[in-house]
Amino acid sequence: MAIALQSYVQDRWVCPTGGLVEIASAIDGRPVATCSSQGVDFAAAVRHARDMGGPALRAMTFHDRADRLRALAGYLNDRKEVLYRLSTNTGATKRDNAFDVDGGIGTLFAYASRGRRELPSERFLVEGGVETLSKSGAFVGTHILTPLHGVAVHINAFNFPCWGPLEKFAPAFLAGMPVITKPATATAYVTEALVRLMLESGILPVGSLQLVCGSVGDLLDHLTGQDVVSFTGSLETSQILRNHPAIGRNAVRFIAERDSLNAAILGPDAAPGTPEFDLFVREVVREMTVKAGQKCTAIRRAFVPRAMEGEATRAIAEALGAVTVGSPLLADTRMGPLVSLGQRDAVRLAVAEIASDGEIAFGDPNRCEPLGADDVSGAFMAPVLLRCPDPASARFAHTTEAFGPVATVMPYGSLEEAVDLAARGEGSLVASLFTFDAEVGAAIAFGIAPFHGRLLIVDRDCGRDSTGHGSPLPGLVHGGPGRAGGGEELGGLRGVFHYMQRTALQGSPARLASLTRSWIKGAPAPATERHPFRLDFDALRIGDTIETGSRTVTLEDIEQFAHFPGDTFYAHMDEEAAKANPFFPGRVAHGYLLLSFAAGLFVDPPPGPVLANYGLDNLRFLKPVSPGDAIRVRLTVKAKNAARQPEYGEVRWDAEIFNQTGETVARYDLLTMNARPHAAPAA
Amino acid sequence: MAIALQSYVQDRWVCPTGGLVEIASAIDGRPVATCSSQGVDFAAAVRHARDMGGPALRAMTFHDRADRLRALAGYLNDRKEVLYRLSTNTGATKRDNAFDVDGGIGTLFAYASRGRRELPSERFLVEGGVETLSKSGAFVGTHILTPLHGVAVHINAFNFPCWGPLEKFAPAFLAGMPVITKPATATAYVTEALVRLMLESGILPVGSLQLVCGSVGDLLDHLTGQDVVSFTGSLETSQILRNHPAIGRNAVRFIAERDSLNAAILGPDAAPGTPEFDLFVREVVREMTVKAGQKCTAIRRAFVPRAMEGEATRAIAEALGAVTVGSPLLADTRMGPLVSLGQRDAVRLAVAEIASDGEIAFGDPNRCEPLGADDVSGAFMAPVLLRCPDPASARFAHTTEAFGPVATVMPYGSLEEAVDLAARGEGSLVASLFTFDAEVGAAIAFGIAPFHGRLLIVDRDCGRDSTGHGSPLPGLVHGGPGRAGGGEELGGLRGVFHYMQRTALQGSPARLASLTRSWIKGAPAPATERHPFRLDFDALRIGDTIETGSRTVTLEDIEQFAHFPGDTFYAHMDEEAAKANPFFPGRVAHGYLLLSFAAGLFVDPPPGPVLANYGLDNLRFLKPVSPGDAIRVRLTVKAKNAARQPEYGEVRWDAEIFNQTGETVARYDLLTMNARPHAAPAA
Q: Which of A41, B95, B251, B361 has its CA 20 to 30 A from that of B119?
């Protein structure tokens, strides 16, 4: 009984009014679901995202959104079995589900953590430092990032019905943008189930997630410069979307992940018998067989030193021979079918093209004897290893993507040749390099870096820990130049910023400090009536300041500081030698003596809201302090940030140490953990 | 006698073979120059950039390129009079030249400084921190940026024939990408003269700069995913370029600055009589008249509180009445002509459209009596102030850009209304806000930030220092979403990164440390035979390490440290109170005591290559140290960077303090200035 897929638009599930497409099981061709977006009011979906989802998300802080992501990840993690079960019909094995379902949930967890750890408890983000724009310092600039006011349209590929939507959703949600997600039809029933879970969780604000099962209709017509399209799929489809008139006219942000003929390169040092050779063989086989090779990051081109071509090919072929292809329902199956018979046809065509550049070294693209199934009604295909003996003159091997369990071995001579050949992919998502030789690593890595979004260097030191050639990770950018689409996703906060507008702010220090809630030199720094260390986190205001009295640094102080901690560096101890130093006028005080004396000047000894000094940033000693100089300190609240525990808050203080003539001798950010006695207990 | 403009391609000046276009003087219509790119071999130009310019630039470090930029800026600065003279025929006054010529040279200087100050003496850049990718720490990731291997095609607008090419050239050159620059025909003779100077300087490597005067021919056909197109001009032209098949197919990076109906907003607090009111009037008039309003950043829409509409309009009109329009050759002239009669026709048409939304409040678009010229042969136009009384229902005022001395005054009611009206520009480069009220500032700034690339908040505190609504600055992003094109230029290093590929690197700590020349925890840290403080800058290797002996921290030490610098914070002095603190087990050592003791453990007292400890970064106290604990230090060379003076180098050390059980109690980056005794003297 086929599932009748629905779209979720304007807060309700919408049944298609016609145009149904039948989706067949990859295993046996039986109908699994029907799908159509006919009847969806796309203009209303966009409006709903803008009018409901956007405002709700923008009312939340980054921390609020991060907490929702964490809750959502936990909710899905407890219910993922249903996704596993549905995925079977797409051809996914248990191993494949670890990538798709668990990988997707893991990405939510990862962005939840980053949001808490790397973003403030604010609705905007200050990016980079303060630019002084006038000599007097009365005119300054800085940058902020704020969420775009539109909708993020996510158009996903069939191969990752869970990870695909989730890796796009997590950064958009954290940024504060509502999402309309559209799965590829072939596996839309898995995504529909995923979205049902996400909505049922009750964790997402109304309008923050909508689903379109079927074509995008006239959705793109309604997009503006506040919207984002993030696409994963073929070059052809990407072109059609990108050239839609509204996209160019309104400069809609367009992120694309497309075809990619990713390379794996075996270093000349990695001869048979080395760990790197074995790691290479294992990785090529894994990339060919996980998801039946239907991964945009899979290895398509395996470059090996000419002298090792035979052995490498044999070793890969041998390992491929041990891969059991069959129904994902069976425990013995290592590789499932392709997603559809149509997909298999496309792969067979591509194999034929590439084979014209050489030959098939292993496997038969047209015959497969799957366990527990057949290759007539099921889209099974055995792994195929091709050989292209003259890759410099290949016509297809560098440009035809066989999106299945297919790779081509190609020999190279010099390292320069390996670099040139890898670049013939015209831009890829990822390349991997198997070498234990630093010079080989540097020559190839820097040679091919401009053509790749990610480079993996595998050797005996990390082989066991490596997450693999084909695994995009939340903390590293995923995307590549040229053929790969020029897009960039993930990469930690980088992926979040695609959904935000960067705006330069210019004005007086007072105005910019007040807007950004971050003190800037030149902004008001009012001395508080009570010592600011007596004020708890919530009472402290940005700009609150203590100006200390001064303390003369004597030669005796310097000598005592030298002998006690034991830092008898000549610049502190030997007048003649110090004078010969290009930076010092003679004996000078230790930098840490200044820090310590400064603390002595501003610290308030009895227990109070300041619980600990947990660190210090950006300390620069700007002018030497000589015996007889008198120092004083200005300490100003620069920024406040909620900590993980509601009982505390982090306070960043701008500390500046002056000498008796008012010159700055040192400047730094002091970090303290402050109590919030009146905070509500943790929820 | 008209100048016969040439292109500069493949290292030689190329005369057009036909298709000449005549360029007329803006002042009197006399022919100034002829221009055509017919005969230019565009494929060869691209090849030349790739084969000669790219490799030459990539062989240089950021510092090398920065030094060339500085030399180039100095060279041009000494010869700018010729550019001033030529610019006169474009209609530019002396004031206009300060923006175009001096502004362009200033941008070169600014990027030279940034390159030296903010980039390493390397050919690549490490971006962001290290990501730990496995539990054991044996698999890590980081990101690098390397220059793209293609060519940067810069397509410029007519209004800034010097600043335009230079603000695009500086970041591309610093990134390491060769440039083909194409001026707009109307003012190409100024750019041609500029490029002649740049080439004559002998400062630029062969192939790093080529010039196309005339159309771009089939240039775009030859671009790949390693190339960049940066365009400034109209929405229409941008669309034609962007939709060129090669751009989309190859995912050529495409940066666009287009139409922008920038807003200036007078705050409700900024009533007549306040400094902010006067600053607003001055700014509107300045933006309407500098470059005769032919600036993509000019104020086109002036929003004023409804109650102040009359007074604001009168004040602007009065100031406009005092603007003398005339030949830029005359000292009394404040505003010159538009660039061409055709441009004036276009502006008059736009004025007529906008006037249909209201009326002309001041000025006659069709009549002008210029000083020392006439408005029949010269493209003179008097400033025109329009009024749109009902901006919520305007058809043209928010979307028709009159690219001349034209602005429209529009009233608003609430702050929300002001925000909504500003957003009707559908994305702008810049908006300015005139208010001294923090709440008005925050409400409008955060309301319109997502629609703008830059926001200027002007008040009495910064009015005198403000660089103005219309001035993009090298350190702040220039570009805006939506109608403005969605591009981003400048913004300090952000503008450089558009010409570089970001690549995630994954591998073992050892491999990544060696590749990035930056030590990573887990990478080899060999103890040097001699104390590393005895090794000069050039002899020190990344990873060189000293492991110190240990020192027990006694209660007496803590007491002495408390009383001597005077930091008697209770956590050090009072066992009971310290125990009550959530972070401490009882009395603990001062953080600065740990730093000082650590220095005592690793410092090598006699004079040597280490000249000074100039600072410290990222210090975190990770675990309290109690009386009786013994600490020791590992100090490892993390990174090295050439200083401005060749005699020194900056060394960043990874410092980690451990306790007697091997737990990390503190970690930080220590910064020292080290001698390079064998360095060549400064050139």
A: B251
CATH number, domain A3-258:
3.40.605.10
DSSP 8-state assignment for residue B555: H
Active site residue A556: no
Task: Provide the number of CB pairs (under 8 Å) joining chain A to chain B.
Answer: 412
Which residues in chain A have their CB less than 8 angstroms from residue B453's CB? 501-504
For chain B, how many helices (H) and strands (E)? 21, 28
CB B483, CB A225: distance < 8 Å: yes
Q: Distance, in angstroms, between A430 CA and closest chain B CA? A: 9
Q: Which of A225, A481, A484 sits opposite B426 (nearest CB)?
A: A225
Exactly one of B122, B257, B283, B287 is catalytic; which is it? B257
Q: Which residue of B has its CA nearest to A620?
A: B615
pLDDT in tens, B66-121: 999 999 999 999 999 999 999 999 999 999 999 999 999 999 999 999 999 999 99
A561 and B564 within 8 Å at the Cβ level: the answer is yes
Q: Any idea what the Cα angle at residue A122 is, between residues A118 and A128, rounded to 5°?
A: 55
Task: Spell out the residues 6+ positions from residue A307 whose beta carbon is closer than 8 angstroms to its own.
Answer: none
Q: Which residue in A has a C-alpha nearest to residue B499's C-alpha?
A: A450
Residue B84 tokens, joined: 């001033």
Catalytic residue among A296, A388, A401, A489: A296
Cα angle at B583 between B579 and B584, to 5 degrees?
A: 40
Between the alpha carbon of residue A303 and those of residues A294, B43, B272, B506, the distances in Å are 20, 31, 74, 19
pLDDT tens-digit readout, A588-644: 999 999 999 999 999 988 999 999 999 999 999 999 999 999 999 999 999 999 887
How far apart CA A606 and CA A682 sit, in angstroms, is: 27
DSSP calls for B211-223: E--S--TTGGGG-
- Look up the ipTM and state it: 0.96
pLDDT at A681 over 90: no
Query: Which of B426, B560, B607 is opposite residue A570, by nearest beta carbon?
Result: B607
B15 is catalytic: no
Assigned fold of A276-460: Aldehyde Dehydrogenase; Chain A, domain 2 (3.40.309)
Supply B338's token pair.
């538009």
| Dist CA B455 CA A59 (whole Å) | 22
CB contact under 8 A, A427 and B514: no
pLDDT digits (tens, 9 = 90+) for B327-386: 999 999 999 999 999 999 999 999 999 999 999 999 999 999 999 999 999 999 999 999
Provide the pLDDT confidence category of residue A645 given band limits of 50, 70 and 90.
Answer: confident
For residue B124, the chain A residues in CB contact (below 8 A) are 446, 449
Q: What is d(CA A317, CA B289) in angstroms, rounded to the nearest whole number?
A: 74
Strands A500-507 and A551-552: unpaired
Cβ contact B504–A224 (<8 Å):
no
Phi, psi of A218 (to 5 degrees): -100, 25
What ranges do the domains of chain A cover?
A: 3-258, 276-460, 525-679
Q: Residue B490 region, left (φ>0) first, then alpha (ψ -120 to 50), else beta?
A: left
By C-alpha distance, the chain A residue nearest B568 is A605
Q: Name chain A contacts of B564, Cβ cutoff 8 Å.
A: 557, 560-561, 564
- What pTM does this model have? 0.96
B669 CA: distance to closest CA in chain A (Å): 10
Query: What CATH architecture is B525-679?
Result: Roll (3.10)
Block means of pLDDT (10 residues each) for chain B, length 683 residues?
A: 93 96 96 96 98 98 97 98 96 94 98 96 95 96 98 97 98 98 97 98 98 97 97 93 93 94 98 98 97 97 98 97 96 95 97 97 96 95 97 96 97 97 96 97 97 98 96 97 95 97 98 96 92 92 95 94 90 93 94 94 91 95 96 96 87 97 97 79 41
